[in-house]
Design brief:
By secondary structure, the chain is an alpha/beta fold. It has seven helices and 26 strands. Strand 24 and strand 25 form a beta hairpin. Helix 1 runs parallel beside helix 6. The radius of gyration is 22 Å and the shape is globular.
């Protein structure tokens, strides 16, 4: 049996942020961490970015041992008992706590076929598995045209691999980018050697010795194709891991619902990161985000509040991506269903896209435009009404 003043369930970037946050307020309180992965905390973005461009693996580690936290890795918490303030893991070990952080993240959405033949790209083990195959094999399929799919397809292609990319939307990043930009990306990826199949879904996957046969069909049912590949990677979203919260009767709705101090329906239970559903005053909405900035900043904020501070979390996180020679940063609600206004210096190479609703800017996409994230946050926080004509050139002066 272990007793901790602060116990963290989950071992990802949010957990790392929480440990740092606790230690900024309390330098001596005991910290325990129970994580399903066997690896200590590490930076996730390089798994689909820098590691494919020559960044050394040893640069991803956070080195949390300097914060004097006890790690229980390779273990999954099965039971949360609020009345006794304890959790029990899959090996029967019991951990008592005074304050608890649920940093349980999410699990990949899986297809009803393919089993272990599909790499659902999420963690370091997935990267190591894909990298080992890429060191020996040549042809890959990527399922999904969103954040992970677009990065992995680019990473593999930049390593001289043959890549076919399959997704049901009309263009790469269609949920994020307006139509003209996602159509540009279809051609851009094609020019980089990627076979792009928008408007297609995967209908099956079979193995023939050491090769995989991927079956796809157009969404209108008029076209069916099969591809012989060496490996299949999928990035089709995650579902927040809310089982423990549900079991304990904590509020759950598209994640674990937290108040502005990141408490999860109980004064001693907190939640942060991918799993947390929180209110953001700039957007006047509840949101749940699955990106690095939110994981680190929200984790750190939760840690500080667990250790005695009472400061509301009003940070509006940003996210970023690299797509071959292009890069972007995005803030707020960058949803292609909103009204958009593009302000290009050079079309599709450098510019800003504004996402608007009810005479307010709800999101900003900075396309090869840098060091403007804080200005974008300030613009989103403005109450409006915004004259769309005033936005022209505002970030490009």
């Amino acid at each position: 049996m272990s007793n901790y003043q602060y116990l963290i369930i989950g071992g990802g970037m949010t957990a790392h942020g929480a440990i740092r946050g606790i230690r900024t307020v309390d330098s001596t309180g005991s910290i325990g961490l129970v994580g399903a992965e066997t690896h200590p905390s590490y930076k996730r973005p390089p798994l689909s970015k820098g590691l494919w461009q020559g960044k050394p693996l040893e640069k991803i580690w956070y080195n949390d041992e300097e914060y004097n936290a006890t790690m229980h890795l390779g273990r999954t918490v099965q039971t949360l008992e609020l009345s006794d303030k304890r959790v029990i893991d899959d090996q029967g070990s019991v951990y008592h706590f005074e304050k608890l952080l649920l940093a349980t993240g999410g699990s990949p959405v899986r297809l009803p076929f393919g089993a272990d033949d599909i790499i659902y790209f999420r963690d370091l083990n997935d990267y190591l598995k894909l990298r080992a195959i890429a060191d020996e094999k040549q042809r890959f399929a990527v399922i999904g045209g969103g954040f992970i799919g677009s990065e992995i397809a680019a990473a593999l292609a930049m390593n001289d691999k043959q890549v076919v990319m399959v997704f049901p939307e009309e263009g790469i990043g269609a949920r994020l980018f307006p139509n003209d930009l996602n159509q540009f990306l279809n051609k851009y990826y094609t020019d980089k050697g990627v076979e792009v199949l928008p408007g297609h879904t995967v209908t099956g996957l079979t193995r023939q010795q050491d090769r995989l046969i991927l079956n796809v069909r157009s969404t209108d049912g008029m076209n069916e194709q099969s591809f012989e590949v060496d490996a299949v990677v999928a990035g089709i979203g995650i579902r927040p891991n809310v089982r423990l919260a549900e079991q304990a009767g904590l509020p759950v709705d598209n994640g674990i619902v937290v108040d502005e101090f990141l408490r999860a329906g109980n004064p001693d239970i907190y939640a942060a990161g991918d799993v947390a559903n929180f209110y953001n005053p700039s957007l006047d909405a509840r949101i749940r985000l699955e990106h690095e900035d939110n994981a680190l900043s929200m984790g750190k904020h939760a840690g500080r509040n667990m250790a005695g501070e009472q400061v509301p979390y009003h940070h509006l996180p940003f996210f970023y991506s690299d797509l071959f020679d292009l890069g972007y940063e995005a803030v707020g609600r960058t949803d292609s269903r909103l009204e958009t206004m593009a302000d290009w210096v050079e079309p599709y190479k450098k510019g800003v896209i504004y996402y608007l609703k009810e005479d307010r800017v709800r999101g900003v996409l900075l396309w090869n435009v840098w060091e403007c994230v804080d200005a974008a946050r300030n613009l989103i926080a403005e109450p409006g009404p915004i004259d769309i004509r005033d936005l022209k050139g505002s970030f490009l002066k």
